[in-house]
Amino acid sequence: MCGIVAAYGVIDPEKCERMLARIHHRGPDDTGRVQLENAWLGHQRLSIMDVSGGKQPIADDTDSAYVVGNGEIYNHEDIRDVLSEVRFATDSDTESAFRLVLRDGSAALYEVRGMFALAMAHTDGRGAVARDPIGIKPLYWARLDDVTIFASELRAFDPEDQPFVEAFPPGHVWTPGIAGSDVAEGAMVRFADAVPVEVRPARNAPDKQWTEEDLGQIRDVLTDSIRRHMMSDVPVGVFLSGGLDSAIVAAVAAKVAEEKGERLPTFAVGTEGSADLLAARAVADFLGTDHHEIVPTADDLEEALDEAVTVIEHFDPALVRSAVPNLLLAREAVKHVKVVLTGEGADELFAGYEYIHSEEFSTPDALQAELVRSIESLHELNLQRCDRTTMNYGLEARVPFLDATVMRELLALPAEWKLKIHDRVEKQLLREAFDGMVPFDIIWRGKEQFGDGSGAKDVLSKLVEKEKAKEGAQNAEPPTVEHGWELRSDEEVAYYRTWHRSFAGVRPDRTLGAFAEA
C-alpha cells in the first residue's frame, strides 16, 4: 500500500515533486522516483511485502521500463510460477504484475487479482496506467495541454489543475500516445468489469431453502479469501465495528493467527457505552483477541470533524459520520499494525441495507441488478472513506469480501435467497453460514450504520445544528455547487463548506459519488 504520482508528456519535475510530497502520508517508509524523457514516476512506500528489498520504482533487467504501484497483488506467487523463466529482482508483489504485463501486454491485467493502481513507463515512450476492477485503490488524473498527470489522491494536484481532475475509471488501462505512431492520441481500454459475472436472471428456487452444502460453500470461499488477505511480512489486525461482517472476518483471522502462534490484534471505536463498542468487546472476548478500544469524547469527535472531511476528500454525510470515528481508530491502530482487514462489501453481496428490501427491489432480477450496481459504485463511496482514513496514517486496509472469487461465487447464488421473505432477516444466509463462530447475539444483531452505532451521529448532528445557527446569525448564504450537483441537507451543506476550502476547483460530478439519501 502506497501512494503514486505519474506524468506522461512534457514533464515538469518540480510539479511532480510537489504532488508526491502532498501524499507522503500514504507511504512514510520511503520515497522513490524516476524521470525519463517523456515520463515521470514517483512513489511513497508503505513497506508491507519484501520490506527490505521492495523499493520502487522497480526496473526491468535492462533499465528500460519502470513501474510504481499502490496496493496488493494477492496472486503474485501464482504469477511468479507462470513466469518461471523470469529472473525477479525483488520479492515485491508489484513486480509480479509488472513482469506479467511486460511479457503479455496490458490485457494480462485481467489475470491480476488484488487491489491496485499501477503506472508503468518505458524509455521509448510507451507506458500504461491501470486501476483494479472495483476501484479499491484510488486513482485520479488530469489531461492538460501537454501532459497527463496521475495521483492517488485529490489533494496531490495543484490548485490550477483541480478543475481538470477526474476519477480514473476502475478496471481500465490507459496508454500514452507516441508521437509519429498509430496511437499518437493514446488509448483507454477496459480490461475487467467490477463484478466478475454477467448480470443475468437469478436462479429460480422460490420453494427451495439452501442446504448445509450451500452454507459450507459460503464459509469456504470467504475463509479462503480472508486467509489470502492476511498475506503480509508485517503484523495484520482487524477493525471490529461490532457488526456481523467484521466479526466474521475477525473469527477467521483469529484462527489464522493462532495457527502461526500469534494473537490477532483487533480495534474498536465508540463513545462510552455505545452499541458498537460493547458489541465489539463481546466479539473480542469470545475470540480471545488482543483488543484495543478508542473511546472518544464529544470534544474528540468535534476536533476530528474538519480533518475527516478533508482526509476522505468527500462531503457526503453518511461517509463523514463514519469517517470521524474511523480516523481516530486508524490513528490508534497504526501504533500496533500496518495492515487491517475490514468487512466492507458484505452488505452489497448479501443485501444488508434496509433500502434494498423495498418494493422496488422485491424481485430476484431487480435485487441482483441492484447488488451489482451498488458494488460498481463502492469506489466513490465506502471504499474511498476506507482508503483515506487508514492511509492518512500509513495504514493499509484490506477488504476480503470484495475478492473476485468471493463475488463470483456469492453473486451466483439465487438472489431470492437474499430477499427478506419467509420470516428471514437481512443477510440470513451469511448469518447461518457462520453461526457458532462468533457470539450468538452478534450473529443475529440487526444492521446499524457505523456512524450511528459508534455514537458519532448524535455528536455530529449537534455540531451541525450549532454551525447552522451561527451561519443564520451571520446571514450567510448557503453554498451552491455547479454542474448540477445539489446539496441535500443542512448536514451536507456544513460538510461541503469544509471540503470546499481544500478542493475549491475540483468538480464533484467528475470525481465523487453520493448515497441516495443524505
Describe this structure in words.
The chain is of the alpha+beta class and 518 residues long. It has two domains: 3-190, 4-Layer Sandwich (Glutamine Phosphoribosylpyrophosphate, subunit 1, domain 1); 206-455, Rossmann fold (3-Layer(aba) Sandwich), CATH 3.40.50.620. The chain is built from 18 helices and 17 strands. The strands form three sheets. The chain has a six-stranded antiparallel beta sheet with strand order 2-3-1-9-8-10, with helices on one face. A six-stranded antiparallel beta sheet has the order 4-5-6-7-11-12. Strand 4 (58-59) and strand 5 (65-73) form a beta hairpin. Helix 5 packs parallel to helix 6 and helix 7 (298-312) packs across helix 16. The relative contact order is 0.12. Residues 180-184 have low confidence and may be disordered.
Reading side by side through the largest sheet, how are the strands ordered? 2-3-1-9-8-10
Tell me the number of structural domains.
2
Percent helix: 25-40%
Which CATH architecture of the largest domain? 3-Layer(aba) Sandwich
Report the CATH topology name of the largest domain.
Answer: Rossmann fold
Classification by helices and strands: alpha+beta
Shape, please? globular
CATH superfamily of the largest domain: HUPs
Question: How far is the first residue's CA from the last residue's CA?
Answer: 31 Å
- Would you count the extended β strands for me? 17
CATH class of the largest domain: Alpha Beta
- Largest beta-sheet characterization: 6 strands, antiparallel
Percent of residues in β-strands: 15-25%
Number of helices: 18
Using the CA coordinates, give the radius of gyration.
Answer: 23 Å
- Ranges with pLDDT <50 over ≥5 residues? 180-184
Overall mean pLDDT score?
Answer: 91
Active site: 2 (for gatase activity)
Binding site for ATP: 269
GO biological process, one term: asparagine biosynthetic process
Enzyme class: ligase
